[in-house]
């Protein structure tokens, strides 16, 4: 038989009936940890632990054992509901064992609840009469029985009036058919341009008519529908919700974790909240492309462009983040790496000599780059550049800005800590824009780039609340401090880059070499170095005899062709001397649209070159049309390094009147020597190609020129270090 003390849990004893493995058994013996079971067909001995662990185990002929009290849930009920449940508990105990205090109590037992004289049903009926007389309302025996069983299954939580703990339904008493129609209308609207809530109401009516027939399900009132739509819609589906909700797709925000520098770098592009003066005199907000190291929160690359960031700009970020940043001559010594106490400059200098004279900014070699699904980051140029350097490109999920939350937050820090302190600040939206923002704007894009680069040095010395070291969890570290702590464990990996690496990052196409040179978009590129290869097929039979050509999208004045010796050789445009400023394909297409077509290709190309020269002259005098101004504003000053050009002094603009990238490249005549495997560094004259400067005006130790885009002149960087 099975025994149990009053109100207690059942006991397995000899003779008890149990349910095990879905069958009915009788306990015929107990020996240590073994329980001997027998039924009509067989008998076996089972370990007690194995018996109790069976999902269907139960002692038959006993009451359901009382559940363990769920105190956490019980505390969530209102005070009045808890007091009433405690009162019910005393009455239930009295019905089961005769005493309100529970089994084993020394309290005097009332006669009508004596288990030895009255059955359980009689005690339940007596309790129902008592509770009705006490003011509990109309209480029947079935009510007492239901409360007793609930107490057995759920403890005190089963005695609570769950009407007081039930969460209100978001849809209230609305018709379920209307609720389903609202959800369907929101689903159809997902991914499309969002309007107002009122625009969804006719669509909801059409869905109800299609599903249930016209007039079958009436629409609630307009205010009721508004409340229903707001209750049902997800944060990203609500028409009047913010444009960029934090979790529009409802997924949990999982923080990104990286344990070593360069393990993950996030890249993104946005417009800076500053008005800049472009070269044609117009005002506009330049585009900022930023790369942020997740492990150290360091801004390892930041590039400003007037507009129209292209794939080559993203590819060139790789060169900037992987090499040290030189200190500008006008910067204070406090921004130098050797003046940063937190960085092991002496030890790093033994690994990478380029850190001598570098700025106090982290240098990382990316392992994985997280990008959005923009064309520039998924282009062949960027992917090929990453593959060359052994970098994995990881596109973020669509419509998930939180996948790049760190770089997105960095944009906010740049706007809050840098942009709002610069003349020409526009604010984050039109409601925050001042009336004098246009008149205050006074910086060009290169000047803003210079200011941003200097500010980033200070930023990397600033404590970041998101950077905590396991040994100092209460101390916020700066990006430089975290970088120093991580490279002590992960090590420092220098990456040497050369001018040839820069050229390899440029976009590529395949062209034939004709007797006139290389024709690209009605432009002819020619030089004597092409003589042996005119009308000759290339060694690449898979390309139909065409030659590999590299070009700069921002400067079409020259291209680079890979000759059989394997090196890229610069080939100038035959009319390059007539164009003193870079131009891109958009500008060239505009010049073609305004120039009359000639039968003779050579004459037509000369007319196009003259029209381009006239357009650039009008841009300098401010006499261009609004269309031409908008077109030229997207043409950034090209910073294409020449493989043979030695580094120029930092102030070469004052001597020559134009930047290094815009200087005439007369050194093209030396390409024949270079094709014969001569070393480009054998040209000792740093003023080669510029006869207006004397050798005495060139400093003995030239520093790296500022490119105006925050990028290295790759060839100059290689020659200097």
Protein architecture, described:
It is elongated and about 120 Å long. It is α+β, with helices and mostly antiparallel strands. The chain has four domains: 71-159, no CATH class; 176-232; 265-490, Ribonuclease H-like superfamily/Ribonuclease H (Nucleotidyltransferase, domain 5); 499-720, no CATH class. The chain has a five-stranded antiparallel sheet with strand order 4-3-2-1-5. It has a five-stranded mixed sheet with strand order 10-9-6-11-12. The N and C termini lie far apart (93 Å).
- Uncertain spans, ≥5 residues at pLDDT below 50? 1-7, 245-250, 636-721
CATH class category label of the largest domain: Alpha Beta
Given the C-alpha coordinates, what overall shape results?
elongated
Name given to the CATH homologous superfamily of the largest domain: Ribonuclease H-like superfamily/Ribonuclease H
Q: Helicity range of the residues?
A: 25-40%
Largest beta-sheet characterization: 5 strands, antiparallel
Strand order of the largest sheet: 4-3-2-1-5
User: How many β-strands, per DSSP?
Assistant: 20
Q: Evaluate the radius of gyration.
A: 40 Å
Count of the separate structural domains? 4
**What's the architecture of the largest domain, going by CATH?**
2-Layer Sandwich
Fraction of residues in β-strands: 5-15%
Distance between the termini: 93 Å
Structural class: alpha+beta
Average residue-wise pLDDT: 76
The CATH topology of the largest domain corresponds to Nucleotidyltransferase, domain 5
